[in-house]
């Protein structure tokens, strides 16, 4: 095994740089690295057979811990199975250290087993891709691997964070003999020091002068983790200067901000449009919000971001403000306060803000009145009741398709005390369950997943492991197909709706729960659902799966009526 000592040392380099979690998928070609990760006393190594699920589990862990998690697989198609999670991690700026074992270069495309072109396999969906040599006997091989590993982990951790790929060709033998000892040698730790970006005083003065020219200022928050500093500054800008702050559920903007906009934006004229738009964070769920701003473009649009990539979601970008959002909004509030103090108590107009607050109050009353009083069993109402019962201090994960969209309509007071997660980097249904499993492994908080049946069954290999955490609860909304396609005008009007878009099926998760040793209850009416909801506060000895059955046709009719009946 001594010839592969530089590979064994990779585990020690990871630990030296505070990477202490690894998800490994079984294989032979990656055996040396598997052995190193599994035997290192400071690495929490878990085995997940399905590479696609493994990568999403690792991503969920990295997202919660806010530090890199390593994943390791064998050569061939196994590496491609990482791709969906790698892409999601890239667009969500989540750090992953992706190890793929490979055949030596001379054996690629030679009709040998498990060989594909793996170098740069993830293309632009990683921050960087690295290839090491296949021969490790020369001292320079150790130097090279140490250098690559240091650069890769530093890159994954540098803002914007993200996945990096290290492709490792390996020759046989892969396994140590019975008498060999695996010894971890002390590596070099090449640290990378960076400084926070800041704006010059001249730039600040220019921005403040621009704000003085506008009476309608709106801030739109994209997906991000809860940031108390940002939320506190936004609250001050709203209360003191009349800013309108809009945030989808996944933005984690906790406070009295605009959150029910999906219900009414399609009815608004240009009098609600901002003159100055300030945006930050990543993706936005609300299609109606994006369409409204694109149609009613602001005179100026600042996007606050630390990266240099030009992101122009609303087709109106005028300025990229290269500074962290918490620094920008805190400084903006302080600067506006100071300027107001120097200029005296000038009365500010809150007319624009009040326009939006009137809509917010009206829509909030409507949502709660309709959903708390209806006796019609349907999917949207069950989402409302489940979300009402999510305890403070927990995590709520939302699967893609209708789950995240339904939830975005529901801004309930208790949700301000809950951290919201969703795979909105690529917005795919693959990996939603696995990500929640990974998150539950990385926290002691209770983790709840709201997921539809297609996304659940597509990713049920997330439950195919021996370490399902007891703090995980899955609410499976089963409407026997892809219900979202009944909501969309295009596919809902086609004869191919059921077999090709909705893909109707009658599967249930009962056997899956039994196989996974999960507590299981199901509901087909409000009484059964209430029985399930009473169990939420109870301490569980294992993971739980609650299945809620509804009818897709009835769901569509109720939701469309719900939206149509609200008049601004």
From TrEMBL:
Its cofactor is thiamine diphosphate; Mg(2+); Mn(2+). Homodimer. SUPFAM superfamilies: Thiamin diphosphate-binding fold (THDP-binding). Residues 10-116 form the Thiamine pyrophosphate enzyme N-terminal TPP-binding domain. Belongs to the TPP enzyme family. MenD subfamily. It comes from Flectobacillus rivi. This is 2-succinyl-5-enolpyruvyl-6-hydroxy-3-cyclohexene-1-carboxylate synthase. It is an enzyme of class 2 (transferase). InterPro entries: MenaQ_synth_MenD, MenD_middle, THDP-binding, Thiamin_PyroP_enz_TPP-bd_dom. The keyword Ubl conjugation does not apply. It holds the Pfam family TPP_enzyme_N. Its EC number is 2.2.1.9. Keywords: Magnesium, Manganese, Menaquinone biosynthesis, Metal-binding, Thiamine pyrophosphate, Transferase. It comes from the Bacteria. Catalyzes the thiamine diphosphate-dependent decarboxylation of 2-oxoglutarate and the subsequent addition of the resulting succinic semialdehyde-thiamine pyrophosphate anion to isochorismate to yield 2-succinyl-5-enolpyruvyl-6-hydroxy-3-cyclohexene-1-carboxylate (SEPHCHC).
